[in-house]
Amino acid sequence: MNKHASEFQHTTAFAEKKVTWLELFYDLLFVAAVSKASHVLLHVEYGSIPVEYLTKFVLIFVPIWWAWVGQSLFVNRFGQDIISHRIFLILQLFFVLIMTASLSVNFDQYYIPFLVGYVGLRAMTAIQYLAVHKKEEAHRKITARYLGSRFWIGLAISSLSLFFDSWIRYVVLYAGITVDILLPLIGRKYLVKSPINTHHLLERFSLFALILLGEAVISILTVLQSSYWTWQSILFASITFLLIIAMWWQYFDNVEKKVNKIIETAGQTIIYGHLFIYLSMCMIAASIQLLFLEQLNYSFMLSFIFGSVLLYFFSTSLVFNKYRHIHLRLGIAHLALLLGLLGVFFTVDLFFFIPNYIIIGEVMVFFVVYAKLTT
C-alpha cells in the first residue's frame, strides 16, 4: 500500500512540474540572441536575401536553439529548485551573455567569444548530468550518464575548430554541433525509458515561441515608425496585428487545450519539430518588415513569405498531431483545405500584382482558418 502511495505521489509531482522564475529569467537573456539572429534576414541585396545571409541566419539560430534546449531538457528530467541547480543555471547565464554579445554576421571577428559562450553553456549542462547520475537509480541513472558523457564528444569536436582557419574552422565547429544534436536521437533507446514531463516541456517551448511572437510585434512597430501614418500603413499594421493574434490563438490553444500532456515519450518530436517552428516564426517576423518596405523583388517576396507560412504549417501540424488527442487530430480533408487555400493565394498573387496589405491579409486569413480548424 505504501509503495502504491509513493508511486502515486511521484506521478503527481511529475505531472505538476512547473516552470521556475529562474527558468523564465534564463529565457529573458535569449531574447537578445533571437533578435540578433532574426535581423540577419533583413539584409537585402538586389531585391533578394542572399543565400549567404539565409545560411548565416540558420547557422546563428541553431546553436542558440540547441543551447537553450539542452538546459531545458536537463531541468525537465532532473532539475530541482535547489541551490546547486540554481548556481549551475546562473553560471550558464554568464555564458549566454558572452555568446549573445558575440553573435554577428562577421563570424571571424567574434569567433573565439562565441565558441567560449557556446562550449561553456553546453559543458555546464554535461557536468550537471554527470553530477545527478550518481543520485539517480535504474533507467534515470543510465540516461543521465549517457547524456553527461556523450555530450563531451560534440564539445571536443567543436573545440578543435580553434586549430583551423578559414572555412575549415566552421566546418569543424558545426560538425561538433551536429554530433551534439544527433546524440539524443542515437541514444533514444535510453531516453524513452526516462520519459520527459510533457506538460513542462510544452510549457517551456511555448514560452520560447512567445519570445518569437514578440519579434513579429516589433515588426509592426517598425512598420508604423518607418513612414508617415498613411491609411496604407495603418491598414497593413492592423491586418498584421490580426495575423499575430491568429498565430497566437492557433499555437497556444493547441498547447493548452488539444494535446495530451500526460503522454510519456522521449519528447523528440516536440524538441526537433520546434526548431522548424521557430525558424518559420523568425522568417514570418522578417517577412512583415520586408513586405511593407517592398525592398524585395515581387516573386522572391511571395516565395519567401508563403514559404515561411508553409514551413510553419508543416512543422506545427507534425508536432501537434503526434501529441493531440486522437479524436481531435486533423484529417486529410483539413490538410487539403489548408494547403489548397495557401496554394490559391500564392498562385493568384504570382499572376497578378497584389498590394502588400492584401498579401498580408491573405496570410492572416490562412492563419484564421488554421486556428479555427485546429482549435
From TrEMBL:
Keyword vocabulary terms for this entry: Membrane, Transmembrane, Transmembrane helix
Pfam families in alphabetical order: LtrA
Keyword Transmembrane belongs to the record: yes
rRNA-binding recorded as keyword: no
TM ranges: 21-41, 53-75, 87-105, 111-132, 144-164, 170-187, 207-224, 230-249, 270-292, 298-320, 327-348, 354-373
PANTHER family (UniProt xref): BLL5714 PROTEIN
Protein's name according to its UniProt entry: Low temperature requirement protein A
Natural source organism: Paenibacillus sp. SYP-B3998
